[in-house]
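Hi F.,

I've been meaning to write this up properly since the lab meeting, where we talked about keeping a consistent format for the predictions we share between groups. The idea is simple: the sequence comes first, exactly as it goes in, then the structure tokens exactly as they come out, then a line or two of notes. No screenshots and no reformatting. I'm using this chain as the first example so we have something concrete to point to.
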Amino acid sequence: MRKIAEQIFLAGVEHVLPDRLIAQQVNREGSLLHIAGRTYPLSPDGRVYVLAAGKAAALMAKETENIMGDLITDGLVVTKYGHGSMLSRLTLTEAGHPLPDAAGVEATRRMLALARRAEKDDLVICLISGGASALMADVPEGATLDDLTQASDLLVRCGADISEINTVRKHLSGVKGGQLAKAATPATVITLILSDVIGDPLDVIASGPTAPDSSTFADALTVIGKYALGDRFPAMLLDHLRRGAAALLPETPKPGDPVFSHVYNHIVGSNRLALEAAARRAGELGFEAHIITDALQGDYSVVTDFILHTIEEAPYQNLAKPLCLLFGGEPTLQVSGTGLGGRNQHLALRLATHIDSAREITILCAGTDGTDGPTDAAGAVVDSRTLPDARKKQVDAFDHLSRFDSYHFFQQAGGHIITGNTRTNVMDMVVVLLPVPDP
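Output, unedited:
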């Protein structure tokens, strides 16, 4: 059942591979470009620029090169280390994620410079995926990269959700929060987005570089206060936010701003698409599949309770065939221990401590990008044997939970899901398998 759960998960991942999604959504027909059901005429006097950022950026860019060919004038791609691909027309940079680095800062500077070259008849194609917030890195005047790295680490570890994190990021940046679109004005901007955020909000995914931003400097300060980060937040960055809230700095462009009059954003991949593909695979394998939600969010303890309650409410005694329950989203995890792991491994381990050993339940929790936290695992799979088998190996699940050390638990007890870099990213998936009970 563990292997079957992994097959179902991988079917979901395969369906949202970025090159596949671009090939499905983009088609060139002479001087016409068909994207996500909309047709864009290409000006004979215009140039075409491609700007890509995120974990999936390289594969999205490679397929765009295949489709657009010699129409591409110039372009830049920034992706996470180890996520690159061979490109023929676009310049590739690998940079730091989840913490920004100097390579990301330089790539972002060049990206903005290229966007500012665009003129009225030009087309700027932006390819955005999860991870772009960290990879498109820039630093406010007077601050340092170390300041930005420290702030990013505080935000990621404090338990804030992605919307809150990106509210702060947008107001420490000159590219996020619609400012990439502003830089490309008056060109036409078409953005293809692989969503890694619940509900697919354009202004939150990758901090919305080509989307109107409804958040403010004051909202960013509210996030800092909510998580009591003020005393630890870099002073220069905090001063930047305070000056913005005092209207001493320009706000990000808001809904209705004319810079968006020729900007078109399209979601081409999402967690829901991955869940639907996983459900189809489960059906092929003989399961009755149900997508419970694509909006798992909140603290991992609340998510644990929701998953366990859903399992308890399942019509277990009346099954005619085995049951597959599918969940998607992105829980949050406030790390307080010194161990190694990620939210999926931690969630899987906590679920394992609550599984009734008398029932044959299998649960897989994994990130579609293949990387759970700062580890080489995508997540983990557990069942009713996980804790008893760990005890035989003298591995204490509760001790590892308390130290936020799920990675080393599964390294010793078994259960890691290792996919390698998938080069896509549509949040996390949870696969629950319930067999037909014995008569």
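Notes:
Residues 102-117 form the longest helix (16 residues).
The mean pLDDT is 94.

If this format works for you, I'll send the rest the same way.

G.
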